Amino acid sequence: MFFHIEMERELLLYPRHFGPNINELLTQKLIQKVEGSCSGRYGFVICVTQVTSIGDGRIREGAGVVTFQLKFTAIVFRPFKGEVLDAVVTTVNKMGFFAEVGPLQVFVSKHQTPTDMVFDAQSNPVSYVQHNIDEQPVRVTKDSEVRLRVIGTHFDASEIRAIGTIKENYLGLIM
């Protein structure tokens, strides 16, 4: 799920960068450092929307740098247990498959696929196949789009991992 939240970050700046454009430089440095990063507390930072305040610089003794406290708002992505997401399959193996939802990687175990879906190592590329009586078989391969439900998440300091399922109604391959 996406949230628009207020965050803080401390940035270091060397005196050679001081000048009339210091605010633009700090904003640019903040965007480079924060966008695309992940924090266990907030989730994946997608985009900085606004810098609300730039604090006064504090000189670090002995280091020759100045620290600035920046407050800003950002759009973040944080997955929750039970959330339904559309993902793109990146890897398929006999244990299950990995899918990506933007920056989040989700693992779907073979035990979390429908009971009539089996791993087919002979196909090229390898896939999970579900044979239907009336229609063509459904194949989950690399680059397939699937709808999945997040059944578990794990938050570290710098990454988020998730486990998903396609075993329920209305989940699985998106055609």
What keywords describe this structure?
175 residues, OB fold (Dihydrolipoamide Acetyltransferase, E2P), five-stranded antiparallel β-sheet, mainly beta, elongated, 2 domains, single chain, single-stranded DNA binding, 1 helix, Dna Ligase, domain 1, single-stranded RNA binding
In short:
By secondary structure, the protein is mostly beta strands.
Task: Flag low-confidence runs.
Answer: none
CATH class of the largest domain: Mainly Beta
CATH fold-level assignment of the largest domain: OB fold (Dihydrolipoamide Acetyltransferase, E2P)
Oligomer state of the chains in this structure: single chain
Order of helices and strands: EHEEEEEEEEEEEEE
Total of domains: 2
Mean pLDDT metric: 93
Characterize the biggest β-sheet.
5 strands, antiparallel
The span between the termini is 23 Å
Give the % helix: under 10%
What topology emerges from the helices and strands here?
Layout: E1 2-13, H1 22-34, E2 38-39, E3 43-54, E4 58-60, E5 65-77, E6 84-93, E7 96-101, E8 104-109, E9 117-120, E10 127-130, E11 138-140, E12 145-155, E13 160-165, E14 172-173
Parallel strand pairs: 8-13
Antiparallel strand pairs: 1-5, 2-3, 3-5, 4-5, 6-7, 6-12, 7-8, 9-10, 10-11, 12-13, 12-14
Could you characterize the architecture of this molecule?
By secondary structure, this protein is mostly beta strands. The protein folds into two domains: 2-77, RNA polymerase Rpb7-like, N-terminal domain (Dna Ligase, domain 1, 2-Layer Sandwich), CATH 3.30.1490.120; 83-173, Beta Barrel (OB fold (Dihydrolipoamide Acetyltransferase, E2P)), CATH 2.40.50.140. Helix content is 7%, strand content 54%. It contains one helix and 14 strands. The protein has one helix spanning 22-34, and strands at 2-13, 38-39, 43-54, 58-60, 65-77, 84-93, 96-101, 104-109, 117-120, 127-130, 138-140, 145-155, 160-165, 172-173. Strands 1, 2, 3, 4 and 5 form a five-stranded antiparallel sheet that branches. It has a five-stranded mixed beta barrel with strand order 6-7-8-13-12. Strand 12 and strand 13 (160-165) form a beta hairpin. The longest helix has 13 residues, at 22-34. The protein starts with a strand and ends with a strand. The model has no long low-confidence stretch (mean pLDDT 93).
